[in-house]
Amino acid sequence: MIRSQPESESTSFTPDLTPLLDIIFIVMVFLLLTANIQIKTMDIAIPQTNDSEVLESPNREVIAINVLRGSPSWALQGEPLHDWETFTTQLLEAIQQAPDKPVVIAADKQANVESMLKVLAFMQNNNINATNIVMEEQ
């Protein structure tokens, strides 16, 4: 007759911890997924004006820069330009031909912000001052 060895008494009374660990893990995942996560935001105050003089268009000829939605991204004097190099050379030529003309920037609401920032960085690097950024009255 084959007899199995009797289990020692110390191991026979220890509970199996695997189901307990599974339950603890599931509860921990549930609590992590349902916890309220505080989203950190920064309040930005955008300047607004009701001053009609600021919102008026200049009474003389201007050099108009347009930041467009999609491709092409830029236009000068209403003429779309397909690449950045052409846009920058024509802008510098226009400013050299008429340095007394004010520069006005008009951007589409849905234009790429990167395109607008690229224009502003170029103007800052070349010491070009924009006298007006076109806005709508709220």
Give a structural overview.
By secondary structure, the protein is an alpha/beta fold. It has a domain at 63-136: Nucleotidyltransferase, domain 5 (2-Layer Sandwich), CATH 3.30.420. It has helices at residues 9-12, 18-34, 52-55, 84-97, 113-125, and strands at 63-67, 74-76, 79-81, 103-107, 130-133. The longest helix is centred in the N-terminal third of the chain and has 17 residues, at 18-34. It is rod-shaped, with a radius of gyration of 34 Å.
How would you classify the helix and strand content by structural class? alpha/beta
CATH level-3 fold name of the domain at 63-136: Nucleotidyltransferase, domain 5
Largest sheet: 5 strands, mixed
The H/E string reads HHHEEEHEHE
Would you identify the regions where 5 or more consecutive residues have pLDDT less than 50? none
Report the CATH C-level class of the domain at 63-136.
Alpha Beta
Kindly estimate the percentage of residues that lie in beta strands according to DSSP: 5-15%
Strand order of the largest sheet: 3-2-1-4-5
Let me know the average pLDDT.
76
Percentage of residues assigned to helices: 25-40%
**Total count of helical runs of at least 4 residues:** 5
Spatial shape: rod-shaped
Please tell me how large the radius of gyration is. Answer: 34 Å
State the end-to-end CA separation: 97 Å
Name given to the CATH architecture of the domain at 63-136: 2-Layer Sandwich
Number of strands: 5
